[in-house]
Specification:
Layout lengths: L1 E5 L4 H12 L9 E10 L3 H4 L6 H31 L7 E9 L5 H15 L4 E5 L13 H9 L4 E5 L1
Parallel strand pairs: 1-2, 1-4, 2-3, 4-5
């Protein structure tokens, strides 16, 4: 079984990691766990729009993009360490980071699109995702990213973690 475990900086992500270990998912030799996160970068065309954008803005955007990728890498490494500490063999765990251009709509659109693309093209049997992400609204039943992933997961199992 191929398991896609979506991680970010949210408490739901930590709960998803814990649940995967509690259920024993990943302990079988036939299970592959892919830890997956999406980070946003500012696309180059943003700076081609206007000649008035100076180097300061480009440097700021580059720093923001670098921090986004660094935080994604940290989330993956932290999740991997937790899985290994709970007995999952390191050889059964792979890390993937999707670098997506920031969208005018929102961060949630880029995250959902990245997860859906990986789910549809990665040959996964199941996706594990937190019910709400780091920027959740307390009274929402399901976050916007989780909702989009659930709708697109036809033929795949989804484990939604609160």
């Amino acid at each position: 079984m191929k398991l896609l475990l979506c991680v970010d900086a949210s408490g739901s992500s930590d709960k998803a990691i814990s649940l995967v270990t509690e259920l024993g998912l990943g302990h079988s030799k036939s299970v592959e766990v892919t830890l997956f996160t999406v980070c946003e970068l500012l696309p180059e065309h943003v700076f081609e729009i206007s000649a008035t954008v100076g180097m300061h803005a480009k440097d700021l955007a580059s720093a923001w993009s670098g921090k986004s990728k660094s935080l994604g890498e940290q989330a993956l490494e932290s999740a991997k360490a937790k899985l290994v500490a709970h007995g999952l063999p390191e050889s059964a765990i792979s890390l993937k980071i999707k670098v997506a251009d920031a969208t005018p709509e929102s961060r949630q659109v880029a995250a959902a699109a990245g997860i859906i693309d990986e789910l549809q093209h990665g040959g996964y049997d199941m996706v594990v995702i937190g019910r709400r992400g780091a920027r959740h609204m307390a009274d929402s039943l399901v976050g916007s990213v989780a909702e989009k992933v659930i709708r697109a997961a036809a033929g795949k199992s989804v484990l939604l973690v609160d």
